[in-house]
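Re: beginner question about structure tokens

> Can someone show what the tokenized structure looks like for a real chain? I only ever see the sequence side.

Sure, here's an example I had lying around. Input first:
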Amino acid sequence: MQITFGIDVSKSTSTICELIGESKNEFTITNDRPGFIKLLHELAAFTKQPEKLLVFIHADYKLF
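And the corresponding structure tokens:
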């Protein structure tokens, strides 16, 4: 089974999309300790060594 995570990072929140086979789950976290703890709990469900695990992270940064 292939598992794919997409993470779109913005200034105060991140949107996470989990694709597991044909199933899609999307949620938003805050970019602070409680938000990262929520993400950690979501990721902990996939610690049983899947065949493939892909993670994509998208972040836009403005220099000025």
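Each token stands for a local structural state, so reading them left to right follows the chain. Helices lie at 33-44.
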